[in-house]
Amino acid sequence: MGVPILSSKKTSKKTTTTDNVFEQPFTEKERRQQTVIGAVVVAIIAIIVFVGGFFLYQNLNADKIAQAKVAEESELAYQKLQNDPKPKYATKDGAFIISNRGYNQPIKNVPTVGVYLEPLCPGCANVERTLGSTFQSLVKNGQINLEVHFMTFQDNKSSDDYSTRAMNGAINLTQYDKNPQHLLKYLSNIFAENFQPGELSSYKSVSTERLKQQAIDAGVKKQVADRAFKDDSNWQTWLKTADTYTFGRTELYAKGNDSFSTPTITIDGKRWNAENMTTESLLSKLGIPSMNTTTEAR
């Protein structure tokens, strides 16, 4: 059987000019243009990096300068607290220690709880409303010493130096009223939801007479309250000095913060970083099973 022979016919492929469009080398002019464009892009990137780095450096440097200034002012304020006239029972750190023995008579072998309170601070109000009665009971039972710091740095959020007037009265109560429980109840009263004023545009003026009434309602005799609130700014300079000293105490800063804020609570000098401040969590931290046992003053 024969095998058929297939004839093949060559077909020629015509090359068009479009097939070589992208194979043409750049001209000298085009190469120069590409070089210029590349140089410009590199320059722009370099400028962006430089400017960004410059501003980052400036910000970091500004933060360091600000922190150094706070530290310097704090140190100077501490010296003033030691040398200038101060309230009778004030400590060298600008605090008032309260126990069931009275003012500045701490009990041995019990924890010392420090509280930093600002009259206009909403967070301070929450702490006082949650733990205020607990503090009073623990002090009365002799289970803790309470170290109270009267902060006034939010005067600018009122129209009449409310913070200074509120805490100035508190200081005078330590001088003229021998019962610390009256002071603690006064603090609870001024942080009460139906009394604490708002801040800034929400602030409504609170008279010194109304503050005095909170002291009377706390158990202070009227004649004593009259004396305590007669001059509502006699300790203003001392209060501001204590504020300035406290601002530089980095051990009091909340984790991740670079400045002091309220409310702040310490236990034996160390900041308590509890996320949920409750009576139960406080007692657990203090190692106190209950508030029912009275410890004799010693």
Automatic annotation (TrEMBL):
Start and end residues of each Thioredoxin-like fold domain: 112-281
Gene3D superfamilies hit by this protein: Glutaredoxin
Keywords: Membrane, Transmembrane, Transmembrane helix
Transmembrane residue ranges: 36-57
Coiled-coil residue windows: none
Pfam family, one: Thioredoxin_4
Name of protein: Disulfide bond formation protein DsbA
